[in-house]
Amino acid sequence: MIISWRPLDHAAYRSSSWFPGLTGLRALAALAVVFFHYGGPSTDGLQGWIAVQLFFVLSGFLITTLALREEDRTGRNSLRAFYVRRVFRIMPVYFLLLSLTTLAVTLAGTYRSSRLADAMPYYLTFFNEVVDFNTPYPTSWSLGVEEKFYLVWPAVLVLTSFAKSGKTALRVLIGAGAIGFVLGVLPLAPAHQWASLTVHYGSLVVGCLLALALHHPRGFAVLRPLTSPAAAVLVALGFVVLQLSVKPLGQSFGGNWQFVVPVYAVGAALLLVAVLGQGPVRRLLSSRPLAFIGDRSYALYLAQTGAAGVTGLLFPTGLVKAAATSAVALLFACALRKWVELPAIAFGRRLGKGERAPAGERQGPARVG
Q1: Are 368 and 285 a contacting pair, CB within 8 Å?
Q2: Cα–Cα distance, 52 to 54 (Å, whole number)
Q3: What are the tens digits of pLDDT across the range 192-218?
Q4: Rounded to the nearest 10 degrees, what angle do helices 260-276 and 52-74 cross at?
Q5: Please, are residues 172 and 209 in contact by the beta-carbon 8 Å criterion?
Q6: Is residue 77 within 8 Å of residue 67, measured between CB atoms?
C-alpha cells in the first residue's frame, strides 16, 4: 500500500466515508476513563476522567459532518431520520444496562439505599447529569449531556439551512456564541452546578465548529497543514503532554477543573484533525486492537460499573483491577455489540429511511457516527 506523506486534500476529505483513526481515539478515551475509575492512585497523573471530553468533541464533529454531507447530497437534513437513528443507536444498550443494574440492586435489597431509586426519574428522562450523588449507574451522566445536544444542534442546522447566503458563517456565529456563553459562565462554575454543566456543551460545540471549518474549503485550508504525517506526530505528542498536564493545569486554576476543559477540548480538536491524514499516527490508531475496542467503546463505557462489580470480588483496587475491569467490560460490550447494538442500529437506519428491517437479517459493521 502506497502512503502519501503530503497533507490531506480537501476533495479526499470530503469523499471519505469513514475516518478509521477516530475509532482508535474512542478506544483510548474509553480505556482512559475505566483506568481512572479503577486504577487507583498510580494512574492519578493521567487524569483519565477528562477523556470524556474527547468523546464530546468527537460526537460534535461526527454528527455535524454527517449532517453537512447529507445536506450537500440531498439538499436538506431530515430531523426525523436523524432522531430515529440516534434513538436506536443510544437507547437500546442504555436501557438494557439500566434494567440489569436495577434488577441487580433490587435482588441485593439495595435499590433505595444505593439511591438508584432517587436517580431513576432523571435516568428515565435523560437528565442524568443533574444527579449529584453516587449511584450504581454513574457513568451514564454523559448521555444526559449528549441527548440534549442531539435535540438542539441538528434543529439549528435545519433552521439555518434555509439561509440564502452565508449559511456557514451563520452557523459558525451561533457556535461561537455558544462557546462565548460557556466561557462567560465559567467563573460561576465552582459555586453553581448549572454553570459547571455548561462546560461539557462547550466541548460538543468545539467539535461542531471543527466540522464546519473542515467542510468549507477555506476553513480546511487553514487546518490542512496539521494533516501532514510529520505535523500529526507533533500534534499527537503535544496532546500526550496536555493529557499529562491536566492536573497541574487544574491546580494553576485554583483546582477548578472546569477551566481546564476548554483547553483540553481545543487540543482534542487539533488531534482529531491530525488523525484524519495518513501517516504513523493514523496507522497506530486504526490498528486492529484499537479498532476492535473503539467499535465497542460505547457499550464498554456504560458497562464498566457492572464489570467492576465482578472484578471487585478478586481485586480491591489498583492497576490489575483496572485491566481486569476493562477486559470484563469489553466482554460485555462484545455481546452487546452483536446482539443489541448492530441489530438496533440497522433497524434504526431502515426505519429512518421509511423501510422495514427484515427479521433475522445478519448485520455488518456499523459505519462511523
Answers
A1: no
A2: 5
A3: 888 899 999 999 999 999 999 999 999
A4: 50
A5: yes
A6: yes
pLDDT tens column, 84-104 = 999 999 999 999 999 999 999
3-state secondary structure of 326: helix
**Residues sharing a CB contact under 8 Å with residue 40, sequence separation 6 or more, in sequence order:** 317, 318, 319, 321, 322
Instruction: Report the alpha-carbon distance of residue 5 to residue 14 in Å, rounded.
Output: 19
Instruction: Answer for the pair 131, 119: CB distance below 8 angstroms, yes or no.
Output: yes
The terminus-to-terminus CA distance of the chain in angstroms comes to 26
pLDDT digits (tens, 9 = 90+) for 225-276: 999 999 999 999 999 999 999 989 998 988 889 999 999 999 999 999 999 9
Q: Give the position of cell 484499537.
A: 290
Cell of 125: 428522562
The H or E element containing residue 64 is: helix 52-74
133: left (phi over 0), alpha (psi -120 to 50) or beta: beta
232-239: long-range contacts, CB 8 A cutoff, minimum separation 24? 232/274, 232/275, 232/277, 232/279, 232/280, 232/281, 232/282, 233/279, 233/280, 233/281, 235/270, 235/271, 235/273, 235/274, 235/281, 236/271, 236/274, 236/281, 238/267, 238/270, 239/267, 239/268, 239/270, 239/271
